[in-house]
Specification:
- With 98 residues, the chain is mainly alpha-helical.
- Helices cover 54% and strands 0% of the residues.
- The protein has four helices and no strands.
- The relative contact order is 0.17.
Length: 98
């Protein structure tokens, strides 16, 4: 992809881990290494509709973590922290997460 690896690769891995924890399966499955590489490099992660009870902001946070282009990703990681902190606060103060 003609880009150097930076901290966003760690954020991508965090997004994949969140996706798997919340849905019970990874965003992609493949039978061989070449297909895995193709999916990781070229395909966008599917929406977390596999878990319909998941609040939309949580799904959006995860999709931003696993975005394919650097411009779509969180940078720096402080953006992820702000998003994560906002969800429980909204739930506590307003009984919902917008």
């Amino acid at each position: 992809m003609n880009r150097s690896v930076d901290a966003r690769s760690d954020l991508h891995a965090l997004g994949v881990a969140f996706d798997r924890m919340l849905t019970g399966s990874p965003p992609f499955t493949a039978s061989d290494l070449l297909k895995w590489v193709h999916y990781i490099e070229r395909k966008s992660a599917p929406p977390l509709a596999r878990r319909p009870t998941l609040p939309a902001p949580v799904s959006a946070l995860i999709l931003k973590l696993v975005a394919k282009t650097a411009e779509e990703c969180y940078h720096p990681a402080a953006g992820v922290e702000r998003g994560q902190r906002r969800c429980p606060l909204d739930l506590e103060t307003r009984a919902r997460v917008d």
